[in-house]
Amino acid sequence: MLVLVLISLLNIYGTTIDAKSAKPARSSNRTSKFIFVKSNAAAYNFADEALPVNDARVTFKLNKSLRRHAFKNVQSTLLHRKAEVLFPIIEPILKFYGIPDDFKYIPLVESGLQSGTSPKGASGLWQFMAGTARTYGLKVGHGVDERKNIRKSTIAACKYIRELYGEFNSWTLAAAAYNNGSVKLQRAINKQKEDNYFRMKLNRETGAYVYNIIAMKAIIEQPKEFGYKNYYNITQPTTLLAFN
């Protein structure tokens, strides 16, 4: 029985790590503590790091992202269908690597209603560039592209995210760095002398990135609130997605 359990784990995750290494290292160089104030269940947050909705600028950006992802603008239930297919695969891998569950929304933000390779060359659900993918153990080239494999790419993403968290000591900043790169984000932190994502001035894409994740979380968890009434009438399994 023990042997069978071990084999099962290897098949699911494709790799093993010990319990100690599964916990991201925590940096002690944070200057802002505001982001660590946990919000209540009714408030918006990312990975239990509070979003200061009492700030007019923050509220405006959040509402903009919520409107953008509402059914009125999206006109499709594909995001919810993707979640139904992806989350049962992604969630246990995130848990295994000690990554907050909210990171499961990143593939929906990254790939959205599209699929394939971006103009810059990023590919797969986690939109890895080829070089980054290879750095975190994925095979890319010679007719093989593991960026399109759900399990393997999610494992690679977890390794990358854990590394970013170890550098920034904030899951929100780790998400921002996932989008913009750790070097550029660290440069912005040094220049602005501010390490609270919600207080920083970043490029348009990165400045909206975490808000988009929070909005995606809201529409998936509360579809009726954002006009996805027809979602509850879906009875047939989706045939729009093809994954490895």
UniProtKB/TrEMBL annotation:
CDD domains associated with the record: MltD-like
Organism: Mucilaginibacter dorajii
Positions of the Transglycosylase SLT domain: 94-196
Coiled-coil positions: none
Domain of life according to the entry: Bacteria
Similarity section: Belongs to the transglycosylase Slt family.
Upper classification of the organism: Bacteria, Pseudomonadati, Bacteroidota, Sphingobacteriia, Sphingobacteriales
Record-given protein name: Transglycosylase SLT domain-containing protein
